[in-house]
Predict the 3D structure of the following.
Amino acid sequence: MKRVEVKLNLEAVAPLLDAIKAAADELQPTLAVTPQVPDLEEEFAEDWRQELLQNQRSDLDILLSLFGTDFFITGVVPLDATNSEPILRACSAVRLWMRAHSLTAVSDEALETGQMPLLETTEGQRRAFAAYVFLGTLQELIVQHLDPTELE
């Protein structure tokens, strides 16, 4: 099985992890995106929402587990086919939440290009933006170097 190890600068990443963890905590009781529930029985629809929420929580746990004790010792984030798909989903959930809550004042163009006008933003927005870009880069690494369907 293919494995990618990404070595990160602890001093640069640690402040971003605070923003990512805060977003993940906010996502615990709610979905990053409100699902468009088909016309189903309400009980079935609620069960479906709860299953989606449980899956999101599991994905977030996998993402956050990358930055545990081993990470703070080695600075290495291990990625492979067993964790790549949940990490992709968790990164998307956090980025969507940040876009809707922390980065509402940032233009879509700035988010797409990764270039934010720093003088016009708060410290919290700059940290959320850096975390947003970091998670996007992590997603790009997974897409470029790992095939999430490799186990299938």
Notes: DSSP finds six helices and two strands in the chain. The helical segments are 10-27, 42-65, 69-74, 84-101, 108-113, 123-145. The beta strands are 3-7, 76-80. Residues 3-32+40-145 form one domain.
